[in-house]
Amino acid sequence: MDILVLIKQVPGTNKVEVDEKTGVLKRDGVDSKMNPYDLYALETALRIKQNKGGKISVLSMGPPQAESIIKEAYMMGADDGALLSDRKFAGADVLATSYTLSQGIKKIGKADLIICGKQTTDGDTAQVGPEIAEFLGIPHVANVRKIIEIKEKSIVVEMDMPETVEIVDIKFPCLITVEKDIFQPRLPSYKKKLETKDREIKVFSLKDFDDKNEKKYGLNGSPTQVERIFPPSVNNDKEIWQGNSDELTEKLYKKLKDLKFIQ
Amino acid sequence: MAHLKVNQEKITDKEQLIKICPFGAIEEINGKIEIGAACKMCRLCVKKGPAGAIEYVEEDIPQIDKNKWKGICVYVDHVEGNIHPVTFELIGKARELASKINHPVYAVFIGENIKDKAEEILHYGVDEVFLYDNKELVDFRIEPYTACFEDFINKIKPSIILVGATTVGRSLAPRVAARFRTGLTADCTVLDVKENTDLVQIRPAFGGNIMAQINTPNTRPQLATVRYKVMSAPQRNDEKSGKITLMDIEKEKLNSNIEVISVTKKEKEVSISDAEVIIACGRGVKSQKDFEMIKELCDLIGAQIAVTRPLIEAGWADAKRQIGLSGRTVKPKLIITCGISGAVQFTAGMRGSDCIIAINKDEKAPIFNVAHYGIVGDLYEVLPRLIEKIKVSKGA
Amino acid sequence: MNYKVIDNNDIEILKSICPDRVYTGEEISEDFSHDELGGVKRMPDVLVEVLSTEEVSKIMKYAFENNIPVVARGSGTGLVGSSVPLHGGIMINLTKMNRILELDEENLTLTVEPGVLLMEIGKFVEEHDLFYPPDPGEKSATIGGNINTNAGGMRAVKYGVTRDYVRGLEVVLPNGEILNVGGKVVKNSSGYSIKDLICGSEGTLGIVTKAILKLLPLPKKAVSLLVPFPNLNKAIGTVPKIIKSKSIPTAIEFMEREVILSAEEFLGKKFPDNSADAYLLLTFDGNSTQEVEAAYEKVANICLEEGALDVYISDTDERKESIWSARGAFLEAIKASTTEMDECDVVVPRNKVAEFVEYTHKLQEEFNIRIRSFGHAGDGNLHIYVLKDDLTEDVWKKKLNDVFDCMYKKSRELNGLVSGEHGIGFAKKPYLFEQYSEEYITLMKNIKLAFDPKNILNPGKVCQ
């Protein structure tokens, strides 16, 4: 069985601030890492492989430096990896990113099962997975918190809903996005680092794709635009309430209602 | 459309220019400055770099006719016909936006045997509920639900679609957006609308460290998801208004490769590390009986109970419910601490909470240094009254 | 010893020194009668919260003149009963003297009051790209407490212990006089080092009211390695070879599977790996990824040669968190798994760690009692916990005593010492007396007498 895991390189820390005067993003260092949520996706793939065998490929989109996370995936046990890198992909929003990745998936050959993390730590939209499934015309299930069974032609998974848990059987090829904590991700192995030192990482750019229409990629293919960025307002409230118990209760009740903790 | 053009001759200091990019996308290649694949098009280099060095070039592209798209639509989120309250919150928002641009408010309701439930929506001031009622739609499955949504958009052409950021919404909205090759902004916290019907969408990014204002200038419909409890629900009107329209869709569009095997109620037990609301008890809670009272309050507001170490030692709670440096770290939206003095061992495990309400008799208790709202009072007086009030308001 | 019993007049005088910050009877929380694990309890007669050196000095002067015993206390996170007021009297609570007074970036020193918490120091200096290396597990301890136990922590392998980072102290002597020792100077050969005597004196020689700490530039990168081994012997046996390689990790910890499982259960969170019987956890720091990689690769190769099953790399915040949160919860997790426990904190030469731990395994069987351990393989400091479980009080006391006797005896055989970082306080006195010669103890007693001729400051501790 062929499993594909989509991974992304994200900043090493979320400590970004906006300089209020200049509107400039302040970010310390240029450290980056694999999106922590993708580790759960990769771990899920590795566990499935442990039980059922198969091949695990990873695919990422990003600048050439993003090769480092593919190497890291090799160190965790992935068999094969590719990077989609082209400056024409720059400035992509959710739609353009999803389209680019779906083209990349077509390029490397269809997988039976595509696994994505729940979301990324830099964009945290949790939408790229479902959009890719749409572009590939395959079904998807989001918020998977348990793999129940791998069958010949389908996978049975448990899906986390707000009030309920749904068990669904989904036919291959399909895409799932997995919850944090579905499995505890393993750490990269130094032994595997030595073994995979020379393993190839394929790099594809727009010219390798079936659809070479530049208008569908990067900024040009992005229907949304960021108009401005600004620092969030923080809860600096510091109130001390004194009084008799009825007054205090009233205040507490009102506050809980204002904050929507009581309907 | 648009791209960044580099005018090499206008660059004064290459190093300086490279540093401006927060994403490390400006590179020097063979002595020339180039913009690489890491570019996020934030255009800081245009604003902050030497004048004219990097230019934002807008190309002429055919503009769509926004007048062809009319109406603000809310997706009715539900499980087995039980409407999720985020739906009403979004209807409230949709009405507010619609009044600014004089558009109708729609709801699209997809499921099986939901006609009666649709009547309820008419109490919240929508103009029209579009109903897809079909036995293939009994459970949420992505392909048939997307097909219905597609059918609705093609027939009605709404300008704006609001979807609750629930498990279903987060699955369905991107699927629909991709099908129409349009924009979708997730987890918006503020929504507004411009005169030209462009939706102003504000959402947190980078784990909430910055806010971004996003718009969808040249595609329709515009999609946004909003989390539960971000917008305020409108009052329910006694009178109904608007109408229900039953929609037809071809059976073959409702095929699915997904089979729902079972739907079960989730067991309530949630780990305190994942809880959104926590009530934490300390030594100020005197007996196990009082502990039961606090559990009652937990049930009423959907909170998890947590404790400090003395209560673990007393055997009232499991060690898994201990907050602190040596216990678990929690980061809920709300934590109410009851009778906790606030030693660092405890506060280190919870000071990242969004809202901290502390109840303690001793006004000098250090917990008040970390609390957003400090109640100097007796929890034995305040909590029973609060429980009573909540019960009354719930109509129990 | 005959001390004056506290009366109302004393209270009034204390109140005139520290208005509104004097507590008696019911007003004193039960917490102040004990520390974390001492097994010894006594309430102070009066608790005074101080805000300045002058207040401490005035209280000591009064106590000295009136022969009242005094105990100083910080967060109360000690493990040997050092801050328990065995003779009642006055307890001075220093936790409100918690200001960071000065960061001197030209001399790389930080001047603090004793009540500043270890975690606050770490956070504050890191914001200035600086580093205070001592890293005891208990981050909510006060720096005053750390200085008084000469706390060690995990980074001792590379960076040393608290004493190595104390440049100068302001101390209130038992008679109330204020003494400054050391300073911002780097070198100091000016007579006996009183400063080094105060460090580790467990509040028996003077009360630290100000400390000048030495800082280092903050290493920019850190990577941890989690190294699984088929058994504990192989794991710990590798440590001397790592040290010999001269690629010095900041920390070398060992841990066994049972303790990891307890922590998983306690935190409700999985450890990244729990398949092996024993692990080493190593940390490397440095200023660039390349530097850190070069250092750890050398050690990783040694581990593989010595029979490690693999070497796992932890290089991101999430990965470090998944390991270190478990490591940080070991003590609580073991505690949660039993009814009562006691701890032995011996330190042995680094090449004897394996032998010692192996010995505790034997004791576990011999005495049929649960013994758990984890600790600092890199500096020879062991934390061995003997667990009561379902034993009756009598059996427990007897077995504990016997097991402890065996362990301290073994430690002496291996040229180890009674305490690596927790101190002697009250609980470990018998073992100290057994280890040291009469001359040694007499010398310590005389030092105590030189500082405190009336024996009013934390009497009954360490060498008494």
UniProtKB/TrEMBL annotation, chain A:
Transmembrane segments: none annotated. CDD domains: ETF_beta (cd01714). SMART domains: ETF. Residues 22-213 form the Electron transfer flavoprotein alpha/beta-subunit N-terminal domain. InterPro entries: ETF_a/b_N, ETF_b, ETF_beta_N, Rossmann-like_a/b/a_fold. GO terms for molecular function: electron transfer activity. PANTHER family: ELECTRON TRANSFER FLAVOPROTEIN BETA-SUBUNIT (PTHR21294), PROTEIN FIXA (PTHR21294:SF17). This is Electron transfer flavoprotein small subunit. It comes from Caloramator quimbayensis.
UniProtKB/TrEMBL annotation, chain B:
Residues 31-59 form the 4Fe-4S ferredoxin-type domain. FAD binds at residues 283, 308-309, 322-326, 360. GO terms for biological process: fatty acid beta-oxidation using acyl-CoA dehydrogenase. It comes from the Bacteria. Its cofactor is FAD. Binds 1 FAD per dimer. GO terms for molecular function: electron transfer activity; flavin adenine dinucleotide binding. Keywords: FAD, Flavoprotein. InterPro entries: 4Fe4S_Fe-S-bd, DHS-like_NAD/FAD-binding_dom, ETF_a/b_N, ETF_a/FixB, ETF_alpha_N, ETF_asu_C, Rossmann-like_a/b/a_fold. Belongs to the ETF alpha-subunit/FixB family. This is Electron transfer flavoprotein alpha subunit apoprotein. It comes from Caloramator quimbayensis.
UniProtKB/TrEMBL annotation, chain C:
Residues 40-218 form the FAD-binding PCMH-type domain. Keywords: FAD, Flavoprotein, Oxidoreductase. Its cofactor is FAD. One of its GO terms (molecular function) is FAD binding. The keyword Oxidoreductase applies. The keyword Oxidoreductase applies. Pfam families: FAD-oxidase_C, FAD_binding_4. PANTHER family: GLYCOLATE OXIDASE SUBUNIT GLCD. This is Glycolate oxidase. It comes from Caloramator quimbayensis. The lineage of its organism: Bacteria, Bacillati, Bacillota, Clostridia, Eubacteriales.
